[in-house]
From TrEMBL, chain A:
Subunit structure: Component of the oligosaccharyltransferase (OST) complex.
Domain Ribophorin II second: 323-430
Pathway(s) where this gene product acts: Protein modification; protein glycosylation
UniProt organism field: Hibiscus syriacus (Rose of Sharon)
Protein name in the entry: Dolichyl-diphosphooligosaccharide--protein glycosyltransferase subunit 2
Alphabetic keyword roster: Endoplasmic reticulum, Membrane, Signal, Transmembrane, Transmembrane helix
A GO BP entry: protein N-linked glycosylation
Domain Ribophorin II C-terminal: 608-708
Automatic annotation (TrEMBL), chain B:
Role: Subunit of the oligosaccharyl transferase (OST) complex that catalyzes the initial transfer of a defined glycan (Glc(3)Man(9)GlcNAc(2) in eukaryotes) from the lipid carrier dolichol-pyrophosphate to an asparagine residue within an Asn-X-Ser/Thr consensus motif in nascent polypeptide chains, the first step in protein N-glycosylation. N-glycosylation occurs cotranslationally and the complex associates with the Sec61 complex at the channel-forming translocon complex that mediates protein translocation across the endoplasmic reticulum (ER). All subunits are required for a maximal enzyme activity.
Residue ranges of coiled coil: none
Gene Ontology CC: oligosaccharyltransferase complex
Keywords recorded for this protein, A-Z: Apoptosis, Endoplasmic reticulum, Membrane, Transferase, Transmembrane, Transmembrane helix
InterPro entries per the UniProt record, alphabetical: DAD/Ost2
Leader peptide range in chain numbering: none
Membrane topology type: Multi-pass membrane protein
Cellular compartments annotated: Endoplasmic reticulum membrane
Protein name: Dolichyl-diphosphooligosaccharide--protein glycosyltransferase subunit DAD1
GO MF annotations in UniProt: transferase activity
Length: 716, 117
């Protein structure tokens, strides 16, 4: 009987662990400083009244002092909007909201004008947002002005017209013409209806209120959830209006819910852990980076928080206040002998009512069956507000765990007001120093297994071992890891890196026993030890690209729970591998330093066409002489033929022409020599032009004279 | 035997007759023939030089050889035009042919000098 009960309890415990463990932190100082950064006014004023209101509300929640220039500019824009007759009900709504925090004085006539215009807006309202702004404005002006007699004329009628927008699934529509419904609109509607109830001069029909409570339950039925227990509202994408996003939708629903809860008596039937889930959703966001998101988050969390003083008065009406269990640090160190420190606060970080925290169980991530510790209570330290458990770590080893806490409120009345999850699961890391012992490296003969050379290693310092092996031998590196509690430790990462001189690297991984990689054969030889076998290099020769030579060895062992993860150089091994065959894969090209292209480039040596071999100068001169020979032969031949100058004209004019003719020809030839030596074609042609004309003239004279002379001779 | 002797005799007889016939040509034609022979020999010597040392620079070789060949050709043309036995150029005065010869040579040598490099 007892055994089955115990078994059932264990089963219950296990089932409850199905929800993932997660850590939520309440709002902290980092939120506060982020608020100051995000909500910075531009020269003291914000862009719109809506933003002014959001900034002021955020500062109010954090208790940040109101800056005078911000308040002054806010008051200016508020009075401007309030005094103007063309302000819409939306502008008035936001102006009054901002004013509820800034507390600027509104003139009597102005407030009268506001009231009348808002009343008119209520009567003329047709869509949900019209009702929201106008009713909301009236609620605000009622709080701010001294008048007590601000009432809605036909509260029930207005209530019914707003209620007309509701859908059967708990969502609301924005207007009668738009069929799309959303949860965001539901939140707005709830706020509006709460406002109507507070403005009503007489009690409203209770049936209306109860149908509204049903609608709220139906709305909460459509709540969505994540695995870690957070709950939120979301809408389908709506055309026409911008899709708001789960943060703003959930925030709007929560605002509406709390506003409604504040004005009604009696309980709203809401499962309390739904409120806790919503609180976790807002806390799980962390610190948003956008001002609007920040406002939504903080405003919603403020709805879930409250002062202790109010509780006595609104005990029955309030929405439950969630309490959050958080840890300052989720990592405990065995070497530093950390103690477990737990804090329980409200969402905004204020103190919780008196309570006790119990550690119900601690489950390791590896074996989730049995709890490693007994159920024990944490001691409450009044000064720091923390629940502390010392000496926890005596029985816990390094690794990752899930701790299960239970919170019990000390005063029974608080149970109705505060809501705490049944059990909170938190992921905890325990770290410590892991001992590395018996480390050695050896080269073995493959078949016999006999050790050829062996070196002891000290893995805490750099080693300088030098080994040599050929492809028929095995290398074995072995070491032993022990936790502080004396158990064998299996690290998350263990790599051996072999790097060749040419920077080609090979990395071998230690895997679990039974897993075999094609390259590395890994075995757990002993229960305690961790070994890496490089199975006789024969199989690995191709992986090494047949590169023989010196390989640097480096061992990396690391784990999140190890405080002394190591990366240590072991030494080098000289591998003698066979020659690469033709088709062997080449090692991959090493990555080139990408900045090397901006450095100096290689020197370019211009290779012109090699000059042709010239003949020796003597040979050329000899042939020059030979070329003159035929000319000499020509002259000799001429002499032998009996050449004479008898036909040269004797009379002076023809003689001069004859001489000039020869001189002209000589001049042209001389010109050609100069042309070859230094002149260019154009200069030559220019001179040749002149010479040519001269030569033609002279030549014509002399040759015609000669022709006439020979013709005379022939006829004679 | 007799045939060989007779062919040898024939060759000698042919050579002698050619020689005597050539001796009968006018002197101006002989001068032109001499000039042609001179040009051709010069060209030959240049070819032998090129064969010895290679054809670099080729343009120089070409211009040298072509100048010799060109002037030889022009001289042959002059010989044809001046030869009195040539009925075709009966009306052309030899001075005119000589003037053409001189002019063409000058043009040829301009081109040659340009190409010589």
């Amino acid at each position: 009987m007892a055994r089955s009960l115990a078994g059932f309890l264990v089963l219950l415990l296990v089932v409850s662990i199905c929800e993932a463990a997660s850590l939520f932190q309440p709002v902290s100082d980092s939120h506060r400083s982020a608020a100051l950064e995000l909500f910075t006014p531009d020269h003291g004023s914000f862009k719109s009244l809506e933003e002014t209101y959001e900034a002021l509300r955020t500062f109010q929640i954090f208790g940040i002092e109101k800056k005078p220039d911000v308040t002054a500019s806010a008051c200016r824009s508020i009075s401007e909007t309030v005094g103007s007759s063309t302000s819409t009900s939306k502008d008035l709504f936001y102006a009054l909201k901002a004013n509820s925090i800034a507390e600027c004085k509104i003139h009597e006539t102005a407030s009268k004008g506001i009231i009348s215009s808002l009343n008119a807006a209520v009567s003329a309202a047709s869509s949900l947002l019209d009702f929201y702004y106008s009713v909301g404005g009236l609620v605000l002006i009622k709080d701010q002005s001294s008048k007590d007699d601000i009432h809605l004329a036909d509260a029930e009628g207005v209530f019914r017209s707003v209620k007309a927008f509701s859908q059967s699934d708990g969502r609301w529509r924005y207007s009668s013409s738009n069929p799309e419904s959303s949860a965001f609109a539901a939140g707005i509607a709830l706020e509006t209806l709460a406002g109507i109830v507070s403005l009503a001069s007489s009690e409203l029909d209770q049936s209306l209120i109860s149908t509204l409570k049903n609608d709220i339950s139906k709305l909460f039925d459509s709540i969505e959830k994540y695995d870690d227990g957070t709950l939120y509202f979301d809408d389908k994408l709506v055309d026409g209006y911008e899709y708001q996003g789960p943060l703003s939708i959930t925030s709007s629903v929560l605002r509406g819910l709390t506003a409604f809860a504040a004005v009604t008596t009696g309980n709203i039937d809401l499962p309390r852990d739904k409120i806790l889930g919503l609180a976790k959703f807002f806390l799980g966001i962390g610190v948003p980076g956008d001002a609007k998101d920040f406002f939504y988050q903080i405003d919603a969390l403020a709805c879930l928080e409250s002062n202790r003083q109010d509780i006595k008065f609104h005990l029955a009406c309030r929405v439950s206040i969630p309490l959050i269990l958080s840890l300052s640090s989720a990592v405990l160190s065995l070497t530093k002998k950390d103690s477990l420190k737990v804090r329980v606060t409200t969402v905004l970080g204020s103190n919780a009512p008196p309570l006790t925290v119990k550690l119900v169980g601690a489950f390791s991530s590896v074996s989730k069956d049995a709890s490693l510790v007994e159920s024990q209570e944490l001691k409450f330290d009044q000064g720091s507000g923390l629940h502390i458990l010392n000496d926890l770590l005596k029985s816990i080893d390094v690794g990752s765990y899930t701790f299960v806490f239970e919170v019990v409120l000390q005063e029974p009345e608080d149970e109705k007001v505060y809501v705490m999850g049944s059990q909170t699961k938190v992921p905890i890391f325990v770290t410590g120093l892991v001992k590395i012992e018996n480390s050695e490296i050896a080269v073995l003969d493959s078949d016999l297994g006999s050790v050829e050379s062996q070196n002891k290693l000290d893995l805490t310092a750099k080693n300088d071992v030098s080994l040599s092996a050929n492809h028929l031998q095995k290398m074995r590196l072995s070491f032993q890891l022990t936790t502080p509690r004396g158990r064998a430790f299996r690290p998350h990462q263990a790599f051996l890196k072999l790097r060749h001189e040419s920077k080609v690297e090979h990395i071998f991984v230690v895997g679990n026993s039974g897993k075999q990689f094609e390259i590395v054969l890994v075995k757990y030889l002993f229960f305690h030890g961790v070994n890496i076998f490089l199975d006789n290099f024969l199989g690995l020769v191709e992986k090494f690209f047949y590169l023989s030579g010196k390989y640097d060895m480096e061992l990396t062992v690391g784990d999140a729970a190890m405080e002394n993860s190591l990366l240590v150089a072991i030494g080098y091994i000289e591998l003698d591998l066979p020659e690469a065959p033709e088709k062997a894969p080449r090692p991959p090209p090493q990555p080139v330093d990408p900045y090397s292209r901006y450095g100096p480039q290689a020197e370019i040596t211009h290779i012109f066409r090699a000059p042709e071999k010239r003949p020796p100068q003597e040979l050329s001169l000899a042939f020059l002489g030979l070329t003159i020979l035929p000319l000499l032969g020509f002259f000799i031949g001429l002499l032998r033929l009996g050449v004479n100058m008898k036909n040269f004209p004797t009379k002076p004019i023809p003689a001069t022409f004859a001489v000039l003719f020869h001189v002209g020809i000589g001049a042209v030839l001389l010109l050609y020599v100069f042309f070859w030596l230094k002149l260019d074609l154009f200069q030559t042609l220019k001179v040749l032009g002149f010479l040519g004309v001269f030569l033609v003239f002279v030549g014509h004279r002399i040759l015609s004279h000669l022709a006439a002379a020979s013709a005379k001779l022939k006829s004679a | 035997m007799a045939r060989e002797k007779s062919s040898k005799d024939n060759a000698q007889a042919l050579f002698h007759s050619l020689r005597s016939a050539y001796a009968a040509t006018p002197v101006n034609l002989k001068i032109i023939d001499l000039y042609v022979g001179f040009a051709v020999f010069t060209a030959l010597i240049q070819v032998v030089y090129m064969a010895t040392v290679g054809s670099f620079p080729f343009n120089s070789f070409l211009s040298g050889v072509l100048s010799c060949v060109g002037t030889a050709v022009l001289a042959v043309c002059l010989r044809i035009q001046v030869n009195k036995e040539n009925k075709e150029f009966k009306d052309l005065p030899p001075e005119r042919a000589f003037a053409d010869f001189v002019l063409c040579n000058l043009v040829l040598h301009l081109v040659i000098m340009n190409f010589l490099g």
